[in-house]
Amino acid sequence: MSLRDLSGSDSRPVTAVAWASNNSTCPGTFNMISSTEDGATASFNRGFGRSGYFLCYSKDLSGSMVVSDIQVISDRTVIPHGYCFIPEFMEPKGSVLKKKRVCARMVPVGSVTTGVLEVRLTTKSKVMLQQYTCLGELHGFVLWCKKGPISGPAPQAKPRSVSLDLRKLSLEGTAPPQPLRPCNLPPAPPRISCRRNKLEEKTIGENDSSSNIYGITAIDGVPFALHPKFEAQTNNKGSANSFSNIRIKSIQDIENEYNYTFSVEEQAAQRITASAMASS
């Protein structure tokens, strides 16, 4: 057995694997594996009257999907969960052998850290590829894949809006300083006629008075005048001395003055009770 080192291959991840009849049916973003690593023609099912088909792979990241794993299964094996059979780009009369099939696991590019980086073919049991994983025998060939770390798409810087004042700033420029200008000034009020201004002031006053119901009382609009009796006392210079004759009563004085025994009510109740007993 011979040993080969393919460490200098492309480090981009494989994004799709498929079958193709030839270069004309192979999609433009795919690379067709036309020969094995030991120099043999990598045509599957080629024989008398048959043109065969080839394995191809793509590294186009426009679909944002990568191949995280590849398996070779027999026609009696249930396809693993999360895997799918690789597509076929065949001529109208071409077909792929179903005895053994290739299935791949497709995942978003940012959901995994490792994936398939290379796909290679060798003739059966003759070549060993360093750093490659043997996936199994496939119709007279051996399928290999190389896995490695992959990274998500490079983040793109979002454009930022720069104000006009910041654009004018420059560390290299030697332009004379610009005069200071006031900023964020309030907008000037619109010019209106005197008649319209008076109408607006009247409307505002009416709205303010009617907006508060607690500002309206029952005596609004009633003229107020002091009684003549009190006007005479107010005009009298000696009226201030009249307050000196006021006697301040204590609680006991008030109780003695306004003491009420409810004797009348008691007598009335007694009469009602006596008349009720007499009638019974």
TrEMBL record:
Which PROSITE patterns does this one have?
MABP, UMA
> Does the keyword section mention Cytoplasm?
yes
This protein's superkingdom?
A: Eukaryota
The places in or outside the cell where this protein is found are: Cytoplasm; Late endosome membrane
According to its UniProt record, where is this protein mainly located? cytoplasm
Alphabetized UniProt keyword annotations: Cytoplasm, Endosome, Membrane, Protein transport, SH3-binding, Transport
Recorded hits in Pfam families, A to Z, give: DUF2464
Cellular compartments per GO CC: cytosol; ESCRT I complex; late endosome membrane
Tell me a GO biological process for this protein.
viral budding
Which stretches make up the UMA domain? 219-269
Cite the GO molecular-function annotations of the record: SH3 domain binding
Q: Where is the MABP domain?
A: 11-149
**Membrane topology, record value:** Peripheral membrane protein
Q: Give the family per the record.
A: Belongs to the MVB12 family.
Described by its record, this protein's role is as follows: Component of the ESCRT-I complex, a regulator of vesicular trafficking process. Required for the sorting of endocytic ubiquitinated cargos into multivesicular bodies.
Q: What is this protein called?
A: Multivesicular body subunit 12A
Write down the species. Answer: Clupea harengus (Atlantic herring)
Lineage, top ranks:
Eukaryota, Metazoa, Chordata, Craniata, Vertebrata
